[in-house]
Amino acid sequence: MLKASIFALALAPAILAAPANASIIDSATLRFGAVEGTIDAFGASLDTDQGQTFGAAIGHDLGGPFSVELSVDNGTADLGAFLPIEANLLTYSASLQMEVNQDGQLRPFVGVGYDYSQASGNADIEGSGTGWHYDLGVRTPIAGGFSLEVMRRAHEGDVDLDFVGDVSVETVAWTLGLSKSF
C-alpha cells in the first residue's frame, strides 16, 4: 500500500506537467479530500472515522458531453475508537462521465464506473474485490488549460478478506481536484 502511495505521489508532477498525445489522453487530474466508510460483515456494521483520500486520473474526451476516465485512489481511515486498526482501500476505477454545461463557467458532471479494490490494514488484513461507483461534481476553468473540481464519489463493493471472507464496503469521498486539459 505504501509503495502504491509513493508511486502515485511521484507521478503527480509528471501527470500535470507532461505533454500528452491528444488522441489518447485529453486530461489529467490530481485529487485529495476526505473519506468515510461502512463495512458490513456477518450482519454487523462498522463505520470508519473520517479519513483522507488522494488519487490521480487520466481522461479521454469521447465527443459531446461524454468522456472516459481511468483513476487510482487511495483512501485511509481508522475503524473507530475501540479498534486500533487503520484500513486502506486502494481503488482502480474506469468511469464514464457526462459534463452537463461544457461552455459555462461552472460545469456540473455525473459519472458511473467499475472498481477493483485492494484492502489492507495494520493488523495483517488483506483482500481484494470489485464494485461500482457514481460521481457528482462540478468543474470550473481557471487558466492555461487548468480547472478546479469538487467531486463526491460514492463507492459500493465487496472485498474478500483473507481471514473473514466477503465483506461489503461502502465509502463516500469528497475531493478537491486540479485538472489539466491537453
Strand order of the largest sheet: 1-3-4-5-6-7-8-9
What is the N-to-C order of secondary-structure elements (H for helix, E for strand)?
Answer: HEEEEEEEEE
- Which regions are unreliable across 5 or more consecutive residues at pLDDT < 50? 14-18
Q: How much beta, percentage-wise? A: over 45%
Can you count the beta strands? Answer: 9
Helix tally equals: 1
Q: Could you tell me the mean pLDDT?
A: 87
**Span of the ends, CA to CA:** 30 Å
Quaternary structure state of the chains depicted: single chain
Task: Write up what this structure looks like.
It is a single chain. By secondary structure, this protein is mainly β. About 10% of the residues lie in helices and about 70% in strands. It contains one helix and nine strands; from the N terminus they run H-E-E-E-E-E-E-E-E-E. It has one helix spanning about 1-15, and strands at about 25-40, 45, 50-65, 65-80, 85-100, 105-120, 125-145, 145-160, 165-180. An eight-stranded antiparallel barrel has the order 1-3-4-5-6-7-8-9. Strand 4 (about 65-80) and strand 5 (about 85-100) form a beta hairpin. The chain starts with a helix and ends with a strand.
Topology:
Blueprint: H1 2-17, E1 27-41, E2 44-47, E3 51-63, E4 66-78, E5 86-99, E6 107-121, E7 125-143, E8 146-161, E9 165-181
Antiparallel strand pairs: 1-2, 1-3, 1-9, 3-4, 4-5, 5-6, 6-7, 7-8, 8-9
